[in-house]
Design goal:
single chain, alpha+beta, two-stranded antiparallel ribbon, 6 strands, about 20% strand, globular
């Protein structure tokens, strides 16, 4: 599948048209003004820019209430399926590297469920 979007450095979903082009992520409402910030990587302290919090704080906010800042939570939306694929691939790859294995797949009501089991050492 061809990836059409870039990954948001705050929420990790693939929602941005480019990096560092001041796109606003519709999932977490982070304004991407710095192409050097990458999801899952340490973030520098940088007080300048359009966001009122640092990206590390925005990541914690996203986990806590679904937006980069609490004041933006009413505008944030859940990710669409095509925005999640890269994130799920990365998470699955990480779990497989940590010793987990896919034990089975099931589909029900339009959802796909994956069972994982710990591999023996």
């Amino acid at each position: 599948m061809k990836q059409l979007h870039s990954q948001c450095p705050c929420c990790g979903y693939f929602t941005l048209h480019g990096r560092g082009e001041d796109d606003i992520c519709p999932v977490c409402w982070w304004e991407d003004d710095d192409a050097a910030e990458e999801y899952g990587q340490p973030a520098p302290e940088r007080p300048e820019g359009p966001n009122h919090v640092h990206v590390w704080q925005a990541r914690e906010n996203f986990v806590a209430f679904g937006a980069s800042e609490e004041r933006r939570s009413r505008r944030a939306r859940p990710p669409h399926a095509d925005e999640m694929l890269g994130v799920l691939d990365a998470e699955l790859a990480s779990l497989l590297q940590q010793g987990w294995a896919v034990a089975g797949l099931a589909s029900d009501d339009g959802y796909v469920y994956m069972a994982l089991k710990r591999r023996k050492p």
